[in-house]
Amino acid sequence: MSAALQVTAFGLALLSTLFLLLATCTDCWMVNADDSLEVSHKCRGLWRECVTNMQDGVRTCDQYDSILADHPVKIVVTRTLMITADLLAGLALATLVLGLDCITFLKEDPCVKLKMCYGAGVILGTGSILGLIGSVWYAVDVYLERAMLMSHNIFLGVHYDFGWSCWLGMAGSTGCFVASVLLTCCLY
Q1: Per-residue pLDDT tens for 4-52?
Q2: What is the pTM of this model?
Q3: Pick from 3, 85, 116, 165: most CB atoms within 10 A?
Q4: How far is CA 36 from the centre of its chain?
Q5: 61-95, pLDDT tens digit by residue?
Q6: What integer pLDDT is reported at residue 34 of this predicted model?
Q7: Alpha-carbon distance 183 to 120, whole Å?
Q8: pLDDT (tens digit, 9 = 90+) per residue, 116-162?
Q9: Of the candidates 162, 136, 171, the residue with the CA atom closest to the CA atom of residue 30
Q10: Spatial CA neighbour of 165 closest among 60, 55, 25, 48
Q11: Membrane topology per the record (predicted)?
């Protein structure tokens, strides 16, 4: 039972970590939701803003200024939290691989392997909470920006919704949290 639970948690943690990495690297955290003009599709991300022409499929991207330049708080905080979550999830995966029962590393000391799995669960839980905070922070900021414009009766012709990268970050963080719960609570 323990080995099956470990392998299940490892598979979920691996898939969720890939989701977190993909969310951090991609640039569709915020997407325009104006349905009246299907001329272009605009995505804003953590690293750049891309516009795709819907008629011919040409995509152009504008890189943000230097990483040291002044950026909106939502971008800086989300970048920091997502990169930290990626690093912690990667560290947890490496620790978990060494702690799996099916790996012959430290086979003679099952207590140490169990502690490694537990430690990987704690690290994974910390990373998942940071990733979830980063994803939700960005989503809430997008919502507040849109609500503020609507409350002041300002309509710029385009309004933004959450992009697939934001949803992917939330899904990856949630998956890492579930894997963490499996490793820390259900393994003993």
Answers
A1: 888 899 999 999 999 999 999 988 888 876 655 567 778 888 888 888 8
A2: 0.85
A3: 85
A4: 31
A5: 887 766 666 777 888 888 899 999 999 999 999 99
A6: 60
A7: 8
A8: 889 999 999 999 999 999 999 888 888 887 777 767 766 665 567 78
A9: 162
A10: 25
A11: Multi-pass membrane protein
Does any domain span residue 101?
A: yes
What span, in angstroms and rounded, lies between the C-alpha atoms of 34 and 40? Answer: 10
- The side-by-side arrangement of strands in the sheet containing 59-63 is 59-63, 48-53, 40-44, 30-32, 160-162
In 50-109, alpha helices (H): 73-99
- d(C-alpha 15, C-alpha 23), whole Å: 12
Is 52 contained in some domain?
no
Retrieve residue 81's tokens.
Answer: 């939290």
Asked if residue 55 belongs to a domain, the reply is no
The number of distinct structural domains making up the chain is 1
* Residue 112 φ then ψ, to 5°: -70, -40
Q: Name the token pair of 170.
A: 């939330």
| Residue linked to tokens 């900021």 | 141
CA 164/CA 26 separation, integer angstroms: 9
Amino acid at 110: P
Q: Looking at the DSSP assignment, which residues form a beta bridge with residue 43?
A: 31, 50
8 A C-beta contact, residue 137 and residue 74: yes
